Amino acid sequence: MTNDQRFGLARSITLPGPLRLDGGAQLGPIDIAYETYGTLNADRSNAILICHALTGDQFVASTHPRTGKPGWWPRMVAAGKPIDPERHFIICANVLGGCMGSTGPGSADPINGLPYAMHFPVITIRDMVRAQAMLLDHLQIATLAAVVGGSMGGMQVLEWAATYPARVRSAVAIATAARHSAQNIAFHEVGRQAIMADPNWRNGNYYADNAMPSAGLAVARMAAHITYLSEAGLTEKFGRRLQARDAVSFGFDADFQVESYLRHQGISFVDRFDANSYLYITRAMDYFDLAEEHGGRLANAFVGSDTRFCLISFDSDWLYPTSESREIVHALNAAGAAVSFVELSSPFGHDAFLLDVPEMNRVVDGFLRAGL
Amino acid sequence: MTLRPDLAIIAANVASGARVLDIGCGDGALMAELRDRKQVDARGIEIDPLNVSLAVARGLSVIQGDADTDLSYYPDDTFDYAILSQTLQTTRAPDRVLHELLRIGRRAFVSFPNFAYWRVRWSLLWSGHMPVTAALPVSWYETENIHQLTINDFRTFVADHGVVVENAWFLSGGSARRIGPANANWRAEHAVFLLRR
3-class SS at A256? Predict the structure, then answer.
């Protein structure tokens, strides 16, 4: 098993498809870029799928090839952590529509060999999950010990449990929602309009140019990044402190530390992310409404499910507030599913799920151990 | 592990293999006992996030929630037993909570501290202050017990609501010593009732 070329770092597979998308289009062939960590046990029962968030990728626990930074979830996925390659076989794949090797708007359209750009079909969270299921078929993993994710990753977790209940023994959905609210859609629309207003965007046909719509994508990232933090967190981290100066400049430089920080977030983001992928993935999130997929009643998504659920929210997260998690919990209760839920306290807003919250680790660790 | 006396009585009287909702489950001690000894499918609701994380870390299905607001989301007859231990007197609307217990559970265990216990009466009579006892350990302004009640109050309460008392246990202070029903209202520090519709 250890020499299986399907397993390891920086893997990629081309699946013939076609994948029939929620939007009606057929997509194929499909590339899926993924990584695995740890060893699949003899009865193939220790596999955990990690689902990444909007701007995440498959490099959950290894160095990012473009930024050189460590994996994005070191506090959850590492030796001695709740998801541990010593005990678990861990899979993380770049989502469909992404820009780190899985098929997305920057990939070549087989019809003409040119990048899909805006000819890429609009995809949904369920389409992403279906593509992941195709990857698991390829890896010959029938059932997952757990599917784990935060934010958009949490949406995929819920979609996994609803679409493939027999393949998911435990589901951990952190800082997420069963549908995108008007406020969530509104913030995404600001980001998309910023990208489309960049003259370099050129209706998405910028791949052959040297000029990317970097300014628009950076603004989109800056606006979104504010929603991942909290007022208290921003105040604590920056307050009204000035950036490398003693007085305001009476100009439009980044006088304030918070401005400098956001500009840095925007500029560093464009080095690792594709603007069209940002459009498509935010659209998939906006379209997400798990209840609507099940006759308008969220509980219907989970009726008869044997999956164990664990939901976690954070009190300072105003992007995916606790009320959204509670709605999922109430639906799971109504469906008779086994569910655990806790709202944890953290000053870090939505981003808390990526940061050091020992209580979160204790809950996830206990929950996962009880299911294995 | 030693369970609190009222919980030990409940644990001893829940049928094996039952489906149970423990409302105000704390760190899940009773649920774990029921799961491990009686193969009970136990679910819990707990208001304190630290307790929830302790219970989930034991592998229990516990949600952070509030007896006053979260019971309405469970369908009728979801559980064989709904358990409300030392919590009724902390709810905003005990009558509504009782109704919900017996809607989602076919039977309900309810335990509470008895405010007519003789030490409580004596303390109030002698000192003129709100009693602070082993069962009621904090001052009036700190207590979560916003609806103090006596065993006789509870008997009237369930009779008025058409609820059947299937069994009752009355405990003296400190030990798990049982008190007979006739003298319970002044001699028992704790009561456990098993109710059904």
Answer: strand
CA-nearest of A12, A292, A280, A19 to A129 is: A19
**Checking DSSP bridges between strand A11-15 and strand A30-37, what pairing results, if any?**
antiparallel
Q: Which residue in this structure is represented by tokens 């069962």?
A: B135
| pTM confidence score | 0.94
Kindly name the residue from A316, A317, A325, A346 that is annotated as catalytic.
A317
CA angle A43, A49, A55 (to 5 degrees): 165
Domain A184-282, classified CATH 1.10.1740.110, yes or no:
yes
Q: Which CATH architecture has domain A11-179+290-371?
A: 3-Layer(aba) Sandwich (3.40)
Q: Are B172 and B164 in contact (CB under 8 A)?
A: no
**Tokens representing residue A357 in the block:** 């919250």
Alpha-carbon gap, residue A340 to B114, rounded angstroms: 32
Which H or E element spans position A236?
helix A231-237
Closest residue of A to B50, CA-based? A359
Which CATH architecture is the domain B5-114+147-196 placed in? 3-Layer(aba) Sandwich (3.40)
Query: How many Å apart are CA A294 and CA A290, to the nearest integer?
Result: 7
Helix runs in chain B, H state only: 5-13, 29-38, 49-57, 67-70, 94-104, 118-127, 151-160, 184-187
Judge contact between B77 and B70, C-beta under 8 A.
no
Mutate to test the interface with A, among B69, B73, B79 (most CBs of A within 10 A): B73
Provide the CA A220 distance to its chain's centre, in angstroms.
Answer: 17
Domain residue ranges of chain B, discontinuous segments joined by +: 5-114+147-196
Q: A306 and chain B: CB distance < 8 Å anywhere?
A: no
In terms of residues, how long is chain B? 197
ipTM of the complex: 0.87
What confidence tens digit (pLDDT) does each residue in A256-283 have? 999 999 999 999 999 999 999 999 999 9
**Which tokens is A112 given?**
């003409």
A43 has catalytic annotation: no
Helices marked H in A98-207: 125-138, 152-163, 182-196
Residue A267: how many other CB atoms lie within 10 Å: 15
pLDDT tens sequence across B59-72: 999 999 999 999 99
